[in-house]
Amino acid sequence: MQPADIIVASSLLEPATTVGAVDLDDLIPGSAPWELEIGFGKGRYLLERAAAQPEARFAGVELAAKYFRLVAKRIRKRRLSNVVVFRAEALYLLSAMLPARFARAVHVYFPDPWPKSRHQKRRLFDADTLDLLLRTLDVGGKLFFATDHLEYGDMVRELLESHPGIELRVVEGEWDGGPRTNYEAKYVREGRPIRRFVIERSAATPAELLHPGGATKILSATASKG
Known about the structure:
Order of helices and strands: EEHEHEHEHEHEHEHEH
Number of strands: 9
Strand order of the largest sheet: 2-1-5-4-3-6-7-9-8
Number of domains: 2
CATH class of the largest domain: Alpha Beta
Helix content: 25-40%
CATH architecture of the largest domain: 3-Layer(aba) Sandwich
Largest sheet: 9 strands, mixed
Structural class: alpha/beta
Oligomer: single chain
Distance between the termini: 35 Å
């Protein structure tokens, strides 16, 4: 799959379709609010949410082909008309394809922490990339995050606490309703510690959503080219 390829599947599309641009209202018509899950894996939480809230619209992003195919098959089997899934690289989809302020909630559970230094540029939560996540949220929208990689979780918390456009809440204990993914259910049974955060977008303008670290790099890059 090329970086710019976006493969889409829903109960309204048979079979999965490759697209060059994303118009969410064309994929699932209506005016209902959207929720987005990045890295949905086997789709436990995404499909449960879509089935429980038929009045809302849901989108999921996953790069692994086997999980994408599995969840696309389950969507069609369960005839869920309010959920669409994308097989895509998340950062590309966020930066180039998805509209700003379209979601009331974004869910990111147990993303790859990329612990090796040379791979950390691929992290979803970084000063350079956090703003891509936040721009998808409407004002007052919430981003839900969990990780069992404690060092990464502490880094994410520090990153969030230094952002001027959000409000951060640390979740003590489990989510209301219990584990949200298969990984989380396994880790809870094992007694493994988990970092859980809820981030609410309080900023109203794009400029207020720039993390200081990311903004500094943008200004430095602009100055070096000028």
